[in-house]
Amino acid sequence: MDDDTEDWAAQLEANRDEKDRFFAEHRQSPIPPEERDDFDGLSYFDPDPDYRVEATVTVHETPESVDLETSDDRTVRYLHVATLSFDLDGESRELHAFRQAADESRTLFVPFRDKTTGQQSYDGGRYMELEPDRDLSTGDEITLDFNLAYSPFCAYSDTFSCPLPPESNWLETAVTAGERID
User: pTM for this structure?
Assistant: First the structure.
């Protein structure tokens, strides 16, 4: 492993430790209070730099409004603001990136399912949030790090309502990176 990869893996592990502390101790943890004493950390796939890919951005100047179904049978409205095109496992793939209509930030919400969904990862899919440091333009490159993929809070408690990935974000490959279930 080269120095950059070692630094990346060390930072990833530090982020995971910090998240485990939040889940175990914070009052806003999705782990029910009565279960926190027994919580000994989330499960993750091993860090894998092959799941850290560059994606080409297509910005949608007039974003389409999309109603995403939720884990509690409601819908929530998002805007399809960008399409991310990338290669993974030797194939060209796409994911749609969303933002809630009232959200003025640059954060891109990327919910997805893959061949691990319901088997090695949460059956409602996983999420990634991308935080570009500037407004993106069509043709820009952005790093998609599936090692940062996480399960939504509704994976840990039914008190949360979580958007489900739309069919357009169902990847026909196993993404063995990020959070997993035991």
Answer: 0.94
